[in-house]
Write a structure and sequence with these properties.
2 helices, mainly alpha
């Protein structure tokens, strides 16, 4: 449990540090992801789903 407590303390310190950085007035937020990237990610997920379904059906549908 000591490891968990150390990890929690380290995580909380890092989160606090990053939140402080983001709250500074000169912080520049990253650009949004373009619509094209969302479409590509959706196509990849659909292909993976289809491959999984085909593999399941050809294996006998256990």
């Amino acid at each position: 449990m000591a490891k968990e407590n150390d990890f929690d303390k380290e995580l909380n310190a890092e989160v606090t540090k990053r939140l402080a950085m983001m709250q500074e007035p000169d912080y520049e937020f990253p650009a949004r992801m373009p619509k094209k990237d969302f479409i590509i990610a959706g196509i990849i997920m659909a292909i993976c789903f289809i491959i999984t379904e085909v593999a399941t059906l050809t294996a006998g549908g256990m």
